[in-house]
């Protein structure tokens, strides 16, 4: 796929992506200030776990998806960028909180995350739990106070976030994965858990995009289709990477878990991943037209998967 | 103190208190529905930890404080009751989540809570963590969607809740208590931690009351004074109970912790508790006048402490 993108466009695209990432990093750092007290380990762990080097895929996706719905040069395009960056930061905090908890001894019991000691190993389990709670609360606080956005919209965004995290969302996905992952699951059950673990957060991102951009009613289900397909593709990509030596996550931690890879084998999963990606691209075309920045970003995320395929 | 309350008034008061508690219990049960799937342990633990028999002190306080600011029979008195009950339920969920986490092995490592096995012992540590996260998210969702309340007010309530839980609030109190509790602390440090552990949530309750009742600007600091004094009094009461055989909490779990009781001895703490209570009552009189229901409730909470003193 990368071959389709000509070098000039790619360099403009890379520049834009760099801008978006820089805006997100800067805002995250503002929203999670250093406490100035070195004994304040929770504040330190909040920063370290959220600001650790990463692709910022979720917030980048949110910003590109929102900007793509607002015409360039329109008066409110700067406002939308700022609001999308704030929302993206909230989503990144939720994501970081979920990783801190997933790594704990009572969950996946991981020692490394992106090559660094996990939060509970570095700061203690008590700090890890409190860090996750504080990040979650901060995320809700950020969403509730986004400036220049109608209060009604802000309450809707808080509601979306609450449902995304709660017992019908990420919490349920993590629970099903922990408790049911070890037994043999059929394809439907795996797809459901995958959707709760990753698709729900992508769904929330796209709903947030729809809410702040004032997009048309008929675009909402298309954005949700995109999120669902992306979630399935991403979970397959993640399961494939778990078996791959150059992954930056703790390798083989899914050993013994019932995944699409253990059910179908790598080749079939790669073909299914390609199908989900193609459906995701189709949904994007219907909303954003051909050659949108967000479609370019989607190709970039999965470039490696495609090259390996 | 109890001697001042004549039997007739007390029985009307008991009836009103019973009504408020019943409304809270019923609404909590609606907001935390049974999942219908017995394997859904998180849903079960959310209900059990929140609906466990308890005094519902925080939500009762919230409802009485809000109703006291609205004249009886005023058109919106029913609406205020409903909104206060919803807010009270959110506060009770936050409180329940904090107890589930406090009991975990990496925190206070408690085996019993109100005579029952703690959530992590009954359901596992993973379920305990996920239950707390789900309760927290549910609380934010409930606050964001309270009906017949201006969206601006709802976003302010979400902000209050986020600050209350986060790294400047309950999280910080729990961290300071865990990490600094074992070393010798002076009175100022103990008062600060006590305020973060209990005063902040009372402060949030009174700010919520102020926000939904449309009370006067000059009443806000008075309600905050009341909350601060109540928080200090309550933490002292709790520390005294920890040494008392007929307490329903795990006895002696503060052994070795630096508290006002270990610093000053029981008698001096009882005298200080009485001073904080008297300041709390004074603040209530300035807002609610003499003989308010909420002042009656305050006396009821601390009746036992006074009788022992």
From TrEMBL, chains A, B:
GO terms for biological process: phospholipid biosynthetic process; terpenoid biosynthetic process. The keyword Transcription regulation does not apply. The keyword Transferase applies. Its EC number is 2.5.1.29. It is an enzyme of class 2 (transferase). It comes from the Bacteria. One of its GO terms (molecular function) is geranylgeranyl diphosphate synthase activity. SUPFAM superfamilies: Terpenoid synthases. Its cofactor is Mg(2+). Keywords: Isoprene biosynthesis, Magnesium, Metal-binding, Transferase. Pfam families: polyprenyl_synt. PANTHER family: FARNESYL DIPHOSPHATE SYNTHASE (PTHR43281). Belongs to the FPP/GGPP synthase family. This is Geranylgeranyl diphosphate synthase.
């Amino acid at each position: 796929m990368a071959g389709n993108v000509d070098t000039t466009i790619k360099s403009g695209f890379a520049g834009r992506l760099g801008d978006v990432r820089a805006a997100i990093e800067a805002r995250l750092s503002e929203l999670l200030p250093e406490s100035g007290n070195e004994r304040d380990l929770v504040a330190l762990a909040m920063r370290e776990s959220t600001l650790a080097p990463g692709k910022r895929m979720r917030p980048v996706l949110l910003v590109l998806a929102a900007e793509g719905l607002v015409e360039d040069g329109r008066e409110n395009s700067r406002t939308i960028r700022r609001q999308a960056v704030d929302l993206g930061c909230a989503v990144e905090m939720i994501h970081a909180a979920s990783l801190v908890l997933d790594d704990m001894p009572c969950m996946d019991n991981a020692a490394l995350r992106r090559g660094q000691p996990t939060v509970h190993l570095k700061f203690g389990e008590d700090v890890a739990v409190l860090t996750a709670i504080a990040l979650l609360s901060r995320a809700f606080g950020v969403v509730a106070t986004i400036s220049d956005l109608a209060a009604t919209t802000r309450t809707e965004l808080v509601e979306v976030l609450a449902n995304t995290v709660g017992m019908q969302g990420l919490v349920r996905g993590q629970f099903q994965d922990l408790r049911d992952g070890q037994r043999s699951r059929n394809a439907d059950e795996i797809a459901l858990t995958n959707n709760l673990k990753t698709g729900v957060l992508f769904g929330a991102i796209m709903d947030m995009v729809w809410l702040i951009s004032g997009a048309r009613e008929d675009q909402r289900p298309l954005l949700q289709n995109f999120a669902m397909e992306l979630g399935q593709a991403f979970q397959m990509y993640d399961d494939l990477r778990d078996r791959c030596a150059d992954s930056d996550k703790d390798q083989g931690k899914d050993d013994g878990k019932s995944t699409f890879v253990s059910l179908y084998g790598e080749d079939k999963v790669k073909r299914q991943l390609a199908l989900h990606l193609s459906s995701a691209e189709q949904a994007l075309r219907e909303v954003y037209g051909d050659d949108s920045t967000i479609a370019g970003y989607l190709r970039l995320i999965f470039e490696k998967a495609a090259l390996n395929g």
